[in-house]
């Protein structure tokens, strides 16, 4: 594959980027090892290449370049034309012009996780901002680092019914243009003199280990104003929180009192090798949240399964039969999709909970004993290994429960069974390539989480907190772009109809692959309503041929109607350098796997009748 994808044909800029093929063999892609995230400033005048003073738009782009930003996803508009032009003429920043601002925000989120670099989203005024909000909400919840650059109405025109007026007359200021639950930092740049201060605040925010989502809105008239102040040159280096010696010693005391389990979340992804050393040194059983699949190898004898939605019964077996005294929680909030707040997951002496967010430990299980530790997970585990007592006895676990495999039910029609599809994806994509897999919310999530197996992290992405339809069908574009390699989205037909960005992938020839589970309905909703005995709601969708739609947009489209068509279709898609949509006719009557959730619900007093003597009803539909 070439070093870069071609930029938009509307730009003649020469691109300069230090890239590598480190994404192969599980390494992070591009120049992520060179990214620094703590600001260092030196005041020097930043001028244009011809010696002229910079405009505000050009100054913003220079600051972004200094902070290591190399991608900007968004949709253009007249109110931000000057800023769009400045971004497009950057020699370092790729501008990916998307079809919808929400899709741009989801793509930017997944581009961040593929590259470990901050990403820009750009939008015009009014609906440009509001269209992006769901994707930005997901970015905040997922822990991405995103800067939204938007346009807003210039001060002299506010309140005069400007086109797409963006002011307190038309859009609430609180929350959109101020810090809060949506943005860690937000501001309207009303004067060129504010830019140095804003640059420093952005740099300080991006320096933190936690995610960071900021919004800078620039009035149209200000974008072309000339900078009168010199700009700080911003270089970034990480600020990594470490455990105090007292907290570390206390954690060792608690964990050496008896056998303990390890419960991994997505926040532990940078510590995979260290966590494996810790588990093998102590004999601790390891379980993980859906987002953390692969951080600990799923074929390892100490791995007991995935918890939560789409998870495994083996986890409950482990907690009931092996009864660890405590659980070491690393980088997960233990929210409903991870734990269902099941009492079965609470060990006798509670939790030692490590997280970079001080508001996380003890909240999901408020009645359980919890020792909180504020620290980066890799830093904590490294210190734990260095200070682990040499005379501490490892756990004696003769045989731990292992995740249950796929049960292929007899075919009742010619349609493709989802379990058969997942096994084909495992063999032909996961085991045969380094492609990243993204699973959409809905039954796609539960099938993929339950049945697919990963031996390393950074290869599986799902959204659990927001879980928006449309996240993966658009996010796959950002993931494939930033890693400069294959990214595969497993999605439902409802999500694919919502907002897919296939056209964007065609424009830039991004090698994204969409595997569409086409069953003609919102099937998680349909199956859930049936199991709850609720009638009258209509989840059905008209028949749609996604292969034809893909071809109409210039992508490769493949239609799969029988299980015998699966292998050639998947092989063709993975061999292609172009975007590919595989439209698969799925049997809608195959119930999505969720026995792990069933057992948790039963423990909480929820009555679940058996559909037969052999198998429980499968409940994926939310009941909280």
TrEMBL record:
Residues 1-23, 595-624 are annotated as: Disordered. GO terms for biological process: isoleucine biosynthetic process; L-valine biosynthetic process. Residues 249-384 form the Thiamine pyrophosphate enzyme central domain. SUPFAM superfamilies: DHS-like NAD/FAD-binding domain (SSF52467), Thiamin diphosphate-binding fold (THDP-binding) (SSF52518). GO terms for cellular component: acetolactate synthase complex. InterPro entries: DHS-like_NAD/FAD-binding_dom, THDP-binding, Thiamin_PyroP_enz_cen_dom, Thiamin_PyroP_enz_TPP-bd_dom, TPP_enz, TPP_enzyme_TPP-bd. It comes from the Bacteria. GO terms for molecular function: acetolactate synthase activity; flavin adenine dinucleotide binding; magnesium ion binding; thiamine pyrophosphate binding. Residues 55-166 form the Thiamine pyrophosphate enzyme N-terminal TPP-binding domain. Residues 441-584 form the Thiamine pyrophosphate enzyme TPP-binding domain. The keyword Transferase does not apply. Residues 7-19 have a biased composition (Polar residues). Coiled coil: none annotated. Belongs to the TPP enzyme family. PANTHER family: ACETOLACTATE SYNTHASE CATALYTIC SUBUNIT, MITOCHONDRIAL, THIAMINE PYROPHOSPHATE ENZYMES. This is Thiamine pyrophosphate protein domain protein TPP-binding. It comes from Gloeothece citriformis (strain PCC 7424) (Cyanothece sp. (strain PCC 7424)).
